[in-house]
Amino acid sequence: MLHRLLFLLILGFSLPALAQNNQLAQQYFMDGEYEKAAVLYQSMAEESYNPFYFDRYVSSLMSLRRYDDAEQALKKQLKRTPEDLTLHVKYGQLLEQQVEDNEAKKQFEEAISNLRADKYQITQLANAFLVLTKYDFAIRTYERGTKLLKEDGVFSFNLGDLYRRKGDIEPMIASYLDALNEDPRRARNVQTYFQRYLDEEGLLEAQKQLYARIQEDRKENPLYPEMLAWVAIQRKDYRGALRQVRALDRRLEENGQRVLDLGNLAANDKDYETAIAAYDYVIENKPEGSPFYLEAKREGLLTRRRAITDGYAYTPEDLRILETAYEAFLQQFGNNPASARIAIQLAELEALYLNDLPKATEILQRIVELNGVNENVRAQAKLALADYYLMQGEVWESTLLYSQVDKLFKEDLLGHEARFRNARLSYFRGDFEWAQSQFDVLKASTSRLIANDALDLSVFIMDNLGLDTSATALQTYADAELLMFQNKYDEAFATLDRLLTEFPGHDLEDDVVYLRGRLYQKLRRYEEAAAQYQQVVDNYPKSIRLDNALYALAGLYESELGDKEKAQELYETLFIDFSNSILAVEARKKYRALRGDSVG
Fold first, then answer.
1. Does a structural domain hold residue 84?
2. First to last CA, the chain
3. CATH number of residue 531's parent domain
4. Which Gene3D superfamilies does the record associate with it (predicted)?
5. Is the pTM of the predicted complex or chain greater than 0.90?
6. d(CA 577, CA 583)
7. Closest Cα to residue 568, out of 532, 529, 536, 597?
8. DSSP annotation string for 233-256
9. DSSP secondary structure code for residue 542 in this structure
10. Nearest-angstrom CA–CA distance, 261 and 244
């Protein structure tokens, strides 16, 4: 007992001193005072052998070029602790520093050949090689360790990391996939590495290896198809991913959520064909009472509508087919609070694409009057209904509905949207000063879209209100905008022509050209729209519409005219030459996306 107490007493005194010496030695070493560091590290290593202290002692001697002393210390320590194979690595480093590469390699080889079936020893030796960036020796260490332990995959993740550092893509992928097979919980880690380090060519290699593993896998492990679907999604090959998730849904007898999620991803990336195929799979293979059946129905309809109306070519027949699908949905599920959003979409189709405003109005009126409908959905129906009344020239009905939503959702984005539309209505009617005061308030909206539109209209009114004492020219222009809103395109064009005839040389000329571009774009006459926007860019260098024209023109080249290089050039011009524009930030994002950058 007395001996034990004495030991603990000595230890209690020595530990603080050791910690203090360690801190001081560390400081000397970091400051390059190797002579002082060597003395302290030698003392600490002799007092209580610690591989770190000894390593720092030898490193200090090497920095002082005291090679003989370093070699003597290493040989002595190897006799004491031959099981510490990292000493061979340090000895090899010493020999390399003296340009004795062959002798150094012998030390490295000896370390690997002396390995035992000891996981800690294997990892320790591999890490020692890793510190010296000797990746090939570290790889050989793990490979020999795997054989000694007789555990396939035990070091696969470590090997993947080493191959990644070397830039050897094929074995890196293979090792990470082995690690995934060994421990499925590593799936997220493997995906992170693939996402970070694999380019398109690397992803194709991963896809190839996964296909081969799936074909060889007799146990039908779902891990590989799941990873293959993930790789396909990274490549934006949603069709390929769909094949895998459908197969997994069948094999695992799932509820369709996996397929539905993929459909949503494809739809958001505008691969409407694959998205529709995903939704149709859920509808056709899951019972009506299943949790994702109704959502697949809804999303399928919405995606079909987007596929037809999102700037793509469509025929009247396409619209009628979509109308029939909407009506079949409402007939199946009834006109009730749950189907209200679908009814709003049908009303939009009727009003904006099939030009049946009375039918759209009737559909929305039912939703507005429906008991139990979500108040946000009712407000959205009211906003749409107000728009369609305005399209039919029923101004008072429109402003009443806008005001109701504004009052109910005062501080909500729905309220801001209603206030903006009401102010725009006042602009159409010629009450410019009141409209501008409302737009000035809305410039502070938390919705960037509302704030940008409000700023545009505020600046436009301010820029033109004082140019003509009667504001007749501005009213004529506003009339043309209202006619465009009402889809009365021929009358809108005629009104713009009248403006130019009655007010030759007026400062609204550039706005007229810009609005013609918007009219042509709504009519899907994209070449003519581009010509109008280009005219603004070429002929009106001081126009407040110049940044809008550049942005619209770039969008046409990107999406409709198939010249992404030209689009990239225009976006670049916008964010460089018009950096103060509210569109500059969005233009920079689109430029980077076209250039292939990762845009967050």
1. no
2. 67
3. 1.25.40.10
4. Tetratricopeptide repeat domain (1.25.40.10)
5. no
6. 12
7. 597
8. HHTT-HHHHHHHHHHHHHHTT--S
9. T
10. 13
Instruction: Report the distance separating Cα 278 and Cα 347, nearest Å.
Output: 25
DSSP characters for 99-159? Answer: T-HHHHHHHHHHHHHT--S-HHHHHHHHHHHHHTT-HHHHHHHHHHHHHHHT-TTTTHHHH
Q: What is the pLDDT of residues 502-560, one digit of tens each?
A: 999 889 999 999 999 999 999 989 999 999 999 999 999 999 899 999 999 999 999 88
Residue 518 included in any domain: yes
CA distance 495 to 508: 13
Tokens representing 221 are 């492990």
**Count of structural domains, the chain:** 1
Cα–Cα dist 310/295, whole Å: 21
In a domain, 529, yes or no: yes
Tell me the CB-side half-sphere exposure of residue 309, using CA atoms within 13 A: 19
Nearest Cα residue to 382 out of 482, 278, 373: 373
In a 13 Å sphere around the CA of 285, the CA atoms on its Cβ side amount to: 17
Can you give the residue range of the structural domain that contains 484?
466-595
pLDDT tens sequence across 331-383: 988 888 988 999 999 999 999 889 999 999 999 999 999 999 999 999 999 99
The Cα–Cα gap between 134 and 111 comes to: 13
Q: How far is CA 402 from the centre of its chain?
A: 35
Candidates 444, 447, 446, 473; CA nearest to 460 is 473
Would you give the DSSP letter of residue 263?
H
Residue 94, classed as helix, strand or coil, is: helix
Assigned domain for 533 exists: yes
